Amino acid sequence: MAATAIAVKGRRGPRSSLLSDALVRDLVATGQVDVVVGLPTLDNADTVRDVVRAVHDAFAGPLARERTMLLNADGGSTDGTPGIVRGESSDPLEIVTAAHTLRTVHRVTAPHDGVPGRGGALHLVFAAADLLRARVIAVVDADATSLSAETVSRLVEPVLRGEYDFVKPVVARSPWEAPLVTQLVRPLMRAAYGKRLLEPLTTQFACSGALATEALSADVWDESFAQFGLDAWLAAVTMGGKARIAQVWMPAAAAPARARRAHLAEVFEQVVGGVMACLEADAGRWLAIEGSDDVPLLGDRPAVPSARPAFDVESFASMFTQGVHDLGPLLGPVLGDQTLEALTRASESSPLHISDVLWVSSVHAALIALHRRMLPRVQIVQSMLPIYLGRVASFFAETASMDVEQASMRLEELARAFEDAKPTLASLWNTEPTRR
Amino acid sequence: MGHEILTVLTSAWANFLELVARFLPRLLAMLLIVIAGWLAAWVARAIVRRALRIGRISVVVEKSGAAELLRRADAPPLERLVGTVVFWLVWLGALLSGMQAVGFGGTESLVADLVRFVPKLVAATLILVVGVAIANFLWRATLLAAVNARIPSARLLGGLVRLLALGATLAMALEQIDVAGQVVRTAFTLVMGSVMLAASIAFGLGGRSLARRFLEEKILRREEPPGDEPPHV
Question: For the domain A3-298, what is the CATH code?
Answer without folding.
Answer: 3.90.550.10
